């Protein structure tokens, strides 16, 4: 074949292309070919439907799902009828074929039988001929015998007479001899008699010879006839043998053909009822993965921006307030010059408004254009996608802009109006520095006396600027907690796989058996698997999909019924979700995994309705809520299942625990098992695991984006606050510089506070981040997954380090700003 | 050679394209332990001279010698060290750290100096024995300036530089402050420079330097300084 082009199919958007019932059970590539190539002109296994007007709805939205569901239900209604029709067509076609074959067979059978009969007749005739010939021979023989005997008798009689005559002659001769003289005549007579006798003797001899000759001839004749008969007999035997051989062959052939026919009929009976699977996009693993990823990002999007927004608003608020306060002299001047409140306020409103609009436009360019593109790029690592269509979301954009504008303009107006209450003269004088106050700590001399001078100053200063104190702490708290939550989310996501496949599902391979295999074949396979040295342990289970109902709500679950509970040891651990202790299954009760329990608000001891794949509903008590992280499962014993559904347990899935195998070796083992006739599919947990891990890595990238953003925000917060700090205290700082503080000492004078605030912020941030993480996990969690609520120690460390790094950078900047403070300018009596 | 020498000191500020000569060829000498009053109109260069002398600013050219040390050659840390150990500053607006009590403001200075005086004693000396635990906002202007002076002299400086120390004070309080400065000079043997635009207080000084147009136009030596109590304006 020639490759004519490369394709991208929406059916395979995921880099992981799902499972197959062929080969090692994994789809690696897909090709499109015309049906000429596969000789399947009128057979098709899939029909893809494009619904009218479906493009009006966003995919995976509730509206879309409902729209599709409606059509699905309609199709569901014709399903049974069409399945029957398909079945009937298939069956009729097959039956016609078999019937034709049968007719042909019968015809051929008859022909063959006729021929056999003919042959038999021929043989019989031959047999009779032989018999006849034989009896003829016998008669002839007897006749000849009688004749010969008569002839012999006559010869004997003749001989006797001859002898008598001889004796008479002898006597006569003796008499004659006794007589001296015998007439010549007599002598002649005697001589004559003698001659006559001799003639008779000769005659007899002649007759005797003749007789013996004719005897010989007759005998020969008979022998010949007998030989001929013998020959005919042999031929007959041969014929008989051949006939019987042919007959046997014929019978065998007929039996064979009949067997075949019977098989064909059996096969017709075996023709499975056609089944329509009416699936929507949710049956496509790639699509589902994509939607789930999108959902989880959307979920993250519900929480993080709020925190970002709050922190950013606070920062903007302080910036604007400070700007107004710094410009109080100008406000005073304007007021003194006769501008009214409205005009002066307007100046700041325009300034703040412009800042909001320009910042908003810039922010939206990043938020609506750059960030989606970055995230899409990350999606590209997991999915084969077309370019993203960037869309301006008026609701979010507008709402965000309006919200922040209201906050900032409100704060600006409030501050300006507050300043404007003063007389111009007051405004033109520098604002009296905030007066000092004793702090609580000073009332505890025990501690206060131990602090050295600079520490005392630090403590005093900390409590002096309460607003800044709070702002810094909130800012750092926000950043640390966002970073921690980000890392925590990453930890949780990363932990799902190990938790599921190290704590719960510890098996390596899932072997699904074909539906219709005989019990002995199953046993055979199990035996083979047990003998396979690469397999350490197997568990026989019955698995089926089902639904758990609690009132109106339901969740799809996978029901796992082990043949014996002990078999599950080392294959699947059923642990209590809280205590993490192994539980033992209770008779007539089930164990439900915890996410499903949470979604359906089920506690251990509650009674739920459990529906199996055949839509049989039973009421059953939940004995335990058990640990699980991916999908929902129900576990019950074989006895419970048999009692609940009144059916017999039947193994359909075998789970195996293998010895340590490399990925390749595991694939090879899977392929080996896949080749067995009883096996429908084999899935290797290791490869499944990799796929899920790949999918999860997308979330990780998003988390990285979040962490980076949080870090940048932290930087802005700290930098801004450091600036506020310096400008608010510029006179004080200039004074201590004049007093002869070295740059480092000036820096320490300020930085100590920052350090303490940072530490407080970090500590609070870690605590807040812990709860934020918890909250985010609760909201971000996909229904199918349970995010383990863990934050690794290293994540706390990262959160601290990143915040510290930003603090250090800001402090370095601060150091140089402090160094640059111009003492003379700052100390000029009036600014 | 005098204790303090100002030799041909120039100071130029560049304001965009305009160059302003704050000081041009300023020359004067001050002896150790003298109380010097610098008078002159606004913009005459008094403060600039004081700033250069105090190490808060550097001269564009010329030489400033203090106790044999050429201040104009000092850079960065040396300059800070000079401010730290040799100079005490008193400002018109006191510049106290609001968040520190009177005594703590003094301690702010003493904790960075080697030969500093005992803050309590200095507080007593400036007459604020009973106010030392008050915050600046709880003190009157005069009291605040006393704290500022206490902070300056507690460092035990060679030079006490005062820029319009009475500018923000009423007559009576101003007089008290000047008295304090005079006493500091006489009793503590500290060289004191006072900038003022009020020529009336000039007689209290040992030396009066008149500034005009960035120059020390006239230097008067007063052999018999008048005690401040006797000066009226």
Shape descriptor of chain A reads rod-shaped
Order of helices and strands of chain B: EEEHEEHEHHHEHEEE
Q: Compute the CA-based radius of gyration of chain B.
A: 17 Å
Question: Span between N and C termini of chain A?
Answer: 87 Å
Taken in chain order, the helices and strands of chain A follow as HHHHHHHHHHEHEEEHEEEHEHEHHHHH
Kindly state the percentage of residues in helix of chain A: 55-70%
Note the gap between the termini of chain B. 35 Å
Task: Please provide the count of β strands of chain B.
Answer: 10
Low-confidence stretches of chain A: none
**Number of H- or I-type helical stretches of chain A:** 19
Query: Portion of residues in helices of chain B?
Result: 25-40%
Say what oligomer this is: heterodimer
Q: From the alpha-carbon coordinates, what is the Rg of chain A to the nearest angstrom?
A: 57 Å
Average the pLDDT over all residues of chain A and give the rounded result.
Answer: 84
Strands of the biggest beta sheet of chain A: in what spatial order? 2-3-7-4-6-5
Could you walk me through the main structural features you see in this protein, from its secondary elements to its overall organization?
The complex is a heterodimer of chains A (831) and B (233). In chain A, 66% of the residues lie in helices and 8% in strands. Chain A is of the alpha+beta class and 831 residues long. Chain A is rod-shaped and about 225 Å long. In chain A, 25% of the residues are buried. Chain B is an alpha/beta fold and 233 residues long. In chain B, 29% of the residues lie in helices and 28% in strands. Chain B has 6 helices and 10 strands; from the N terminus they run E-E-E-H-E-E-H-E-H-H-H-E-H-E-E-E. In chain B, strands 6-7-8-3-9-10 form a 6-stranded mixed sheet, with helices on both faces. A 4-stranded antiparallel sheet of chain B has the order 2-1-4-5, with helices on one face. The longest helix of chain B has 18 residues, at 171-188. The mean pLDDT of chain B is 86. Classes of the chains: A alpha+beta (831), B alpha/beta (233).
